[in-house]
């Protein structure tokens, strides 16, 4: 028996690669479009779209075929590996694309691969917000509702009838030139007449930092017989492929190691590192110990997160081939006691009304549906202290109405009191305004937040801030013994409609 080998050929404007692993794909040599992906005899490619025009070349290096597609500001690498039904990729940029975001999209044949995310299937829907949130039957769907935090999003994909699946794998270093940090999230899937499978490298979708340029990835479009592949992908072979722009070899990287302290038990501990050129993260062990991924040399801001809340930073310098020690302690200061507290200071709305998880989704309601969805609970309500966070809405909307707290206080609970409100994002300059009984609180200044829709597109994390409002002292005397009404509404110089 003679085994079939990895092969590449060109006919006209078409480059054909046979992986000998069940995948044969074709690339347009004029523009780098992937025009065909046949896996196990089934055509998975639908509409193709690529760089418009590019200089495309290819070469065989041992058990790999490398296709290089170059424009003046972007180089795309497509790599086939012998016996592996996958397209390995990396994207080098020297400037941001003119569309203002950087993404890879696999546009897949819905007749073959048709099982995407329910909440991002917009086929047959009616747009209800912009051109990206839809009413589909009795539910709201959007491509944004397929997103997941970068730190948890290493593998996502779609399956079809029969034994077939298409998956994006973003290995441990795949996000190092992306932007936003460990808890940023972006689109993974949209179902229309085709199934779209995404890897967003950067965008302005609630973006909190500048874009990075350089080598994005590596990442993988992996085909399987249906099961989800492992995120543990061997990337060493990239170092054997000749000239790859922006590639920093593992031997030329370094580590950061240490222990995180001061975060109360019960909270996830995450470490992040960022510079102008790279970002990394890792979850700490139960004892707070951590070791970073292999990092490019340079000076980074090291951040300690309690949940998703930044509680400490320090500067750390990484050198090639060395491990630097950089333990870090939380600097968060919290009141020692409360009259009442809804939720935790952890940078996320977990536990609040309309942020709870539902059985049909792995995420909270606000992450997978629009605030207007009929499955949501009423946003405008009065909540007693005994009812707690699960009755208090995770967001307040100017055009919808305020949130109200009914608090019964004793004489010993009066005196000088401060109300602390923590917010994770805001739209159109919105900020909390508080009324306590007949006393109207101060008008806070407009916050610094990304100029982007947030909770209507499935994300709650922008710039976290805390507002301290002295609502009772010898001057205001706003709180009284017995029944008190605390109202929180939205102050903004902009007028919105409904949930904007």
Q: Could you characterize what this model shows?
A:
Keywords: Carbohydrate metabolism, Cell wall biogenesis/degradation, Disulfide bond, Lyase, Polysaccharide degradation, Secreted, Signal. It holds the Pfam family fn3_3. One of its GO terms (cellular component) is extracellular region. The protein is 1% helix and 39% strand. The chain is mostly beta strands and 500 residues long. A hairpin with a 4-residue loop joins strand 22 and strand 23. The model has no long low-confidence stretch (mean pLDDT 93). It is built from one helix and 35 strands. It has one helix spanning 365-368; strands spanning 7-11, 14-18, 23-28, 34-39, 42-43, 55-61, 64-70, 74-81, 86-93, 102-108, 126-129, 133-136, 139-142, 148-149, 155-159, 165-169, 185-186, 189-191, 195-202, 214-224, 255-261, 269-274, 279-283, 289-291, 298-306, 309-318, 323-325, 328-329, 382-384, 403-409, 417-423, 431-436, 439-440, 465-472, 482-491. The strands form nine sheets. Strands 6-7-8-9-20-16-15 form a seven-stranded antiparallel beta sheet, with no helix packed on it. A five-stranded antiparallel beta sheet has the order 1-2-3-4-5, with no helix packed on it. The protein has three domains: 7-240, Beta-galactosidase, Chain A, domain 5; 250-329, Carboxypeptidase-like, regulatory domain (Immunoglobulin-like, Sandwich); 365-491, Galactose-binding domain-like (Jelly Rolls, Sandwich), CATH 2.60.120.
């Amino acid at each position: 028996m003679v085994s079939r080998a990895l092969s590449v050929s060109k006919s006209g404007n078409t480059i054909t690669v046979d992986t000998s692993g069940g995948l044969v794909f074709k690339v347009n040599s004029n523009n780098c479009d992937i025009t065909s992906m046949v896996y196990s005899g089934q055509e998975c490619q639908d509409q193709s779209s690529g760089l418009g025009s590019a200089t495309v070349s290819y070469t065989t290096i041992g058990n790999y075929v490398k296709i290089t597609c170059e424009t003046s500001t972007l180089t795309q690498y497509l790599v086939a590996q012998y016996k592996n039904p996958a397209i390995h990729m990396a994207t080098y940029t020297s400037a941001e694309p003119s569309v203002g975001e950087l993404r890879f999209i696999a546009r897949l044949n819905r007749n073959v691969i048709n099982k995407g995310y329910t909440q991002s299937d917009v086929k047959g829907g009616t747009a209800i917000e912009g051109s990206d949130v839809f009413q589909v039957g009795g539910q709201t769907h959007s491509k944004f509702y397929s997103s997941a935090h970068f730190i948890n999003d290493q593998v996502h994909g779609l399956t079809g009838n029969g034994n077939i699946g298409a998956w994006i794998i973003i290995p441990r270093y795949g996000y190092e030139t992306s932007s936003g940090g460990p808890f940023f999230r972006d689109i993974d899937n949209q179902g229309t007449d085709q199934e779209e499978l995404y890897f967003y490298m950067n965008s302005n979708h609630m973006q909190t930092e500048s874009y990075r340029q350089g080598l994005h990835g590596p990442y993988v479009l992996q085909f399987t017989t249906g099961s989800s592949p492992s995120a543990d992908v061997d990337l060493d072979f990239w170092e054997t492929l000749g000239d790859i722009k922006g590639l920093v070899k593992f031997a030329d990287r370094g580590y950061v190691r240490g222990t995180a302290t001061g975060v109360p038990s019960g909270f996830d501990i995450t470490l992040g590192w960022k510079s102008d050129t790279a970002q990394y993260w890792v979850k700490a062990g139960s004892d707070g110990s951590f070791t970073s991924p292999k990092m490019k040399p340079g000076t980074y801001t090291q951040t300690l997160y309690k949940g998703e809340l930044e509680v400490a930073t320090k500067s750390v310098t990484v050198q090639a081939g060395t491990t630097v020690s950089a333990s870090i302690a939380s600097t968060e200061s919290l009141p020692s006691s409360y009259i009442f507290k809804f939720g935790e200071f952890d940078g996320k709305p977990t536990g609040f009304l309309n942020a709870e998880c539902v059985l049909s989704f792995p995420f909270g309601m606000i992450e997978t549906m629009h605030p207007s969805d009929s499955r949501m609970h009423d946003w405008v309500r009065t909540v007693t202290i005994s009812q707690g966070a699960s009755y208090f809405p995770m967001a307040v909307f100017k055009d919808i109405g305020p949130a109200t707290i009914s608090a019964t206080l004793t004489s010993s609970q009066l005196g000088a009191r401060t109300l602390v409100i923590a917010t994770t994002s805001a739209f159109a300059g919105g900020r909390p305004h508080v009324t306590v009984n007949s006393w109207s609180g101060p008008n806070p200044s407009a916050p610094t937040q990304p100029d982007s829709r947030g909770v209507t597109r499935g994300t709650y994390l922008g710039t976290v801030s805390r507002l301290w409002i002295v609502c009772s002292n010898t001057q205001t005397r706003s709180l009284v013994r017995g029944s008190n009404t605390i109202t929180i509404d939205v102050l903004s110089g902009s007028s919105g409609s409904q949930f904007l």
